[in-house]
Amino acid sequence: MSDIILIGAPVDSGKRRAGCLMGPDAYRTAGLARALSDLGHKVKDWGNLSPADHRPDAPDAKVHALNETIGWTHRLVRAGEEAAAKGVPVFLGGDHALSLGSVAGVARHAATVGRPQFVLWLDAHSDFHTPETSESGNLHGTPVAYVTGRGGFAGFPELTAPVAAENVCMIGLRSVDAAERAMLEPTAIHRHDMREIDETGIAQPLAAFLERVREANGLLHVSLDVDFLDPQIAPAVGTTVPGGATIREGHLVMEMIHDSGLMTSMDLVELNPFLDERGRTAQVMVDLCASAFGRRVFDRPTRAYA
Predict the structure, then answer these.
(1) What pLDDT does residue 275 have?
(2) What CATH number is associated with residue 250?
(3) Within a domain: residue 193?
(4) N or C, which end of the chain has less CB nearby within 10 Å?
(5) Active site annotation includes 57
């Protein structure tokens, strides 16, 4: 069984629509710690972090809350590296800008122990923009670019252990703009959109990626965005894109991750409780996390939301 470390990261600086700062406490209210401890894991909750000291942001700047996000990245890099040396960190978001720090932090730990870092990106978006290329100026669309070593991140922590592009796998893509697609295509990042999932199923590309992680003796970070799921299942997200993964596909992914025994860290991101329906999305994310840590298909509780 694992020593799981819950790290609240109420990051709300990665986009202009507020609400994700309530995410960590929503996961706690939905019973995440209890769900994991009931599976036999030892769970420690480090509480909610705050960003490192940073300069104030200009309210009319093209890039939204750049300095605040840099502050969060500094704090999360340190927390991620420390927690990865002590157990399996689960970062409770917060918007996806938290992964700028969480992934960079666990990758530092991987480099320290001499093992390659792998990242499974479960998201409707590829998040491969930089602060310089983003039209929206929202930094929750930039983490993969940062952690794989792309330029354009002046002021952010030095990336001492970039993740190799071929060690990143994106599953669930269905909203990638033309500029981002052009930047992605020359890379070795593995990309699987929802059309491919519809045609061949979700298990095939995931199994192939997990086997690459195993063969390389890698450490696996799983970043689960609420919008990986279809918004009819998980409505509490500010970036809804129809046509996402079903609840069964989501649980299959998590069950396969658990069966592999490879996951060493995890993000739960983009939950905006302000947009939720009776806590439904928070509970879905808690249930998926529990599947990733060993809850079996026939052990799932019955949920009533009426």
Answers:
(1) 95
(2) 3.40.800.10
(3) yes
(4) C
(5) no
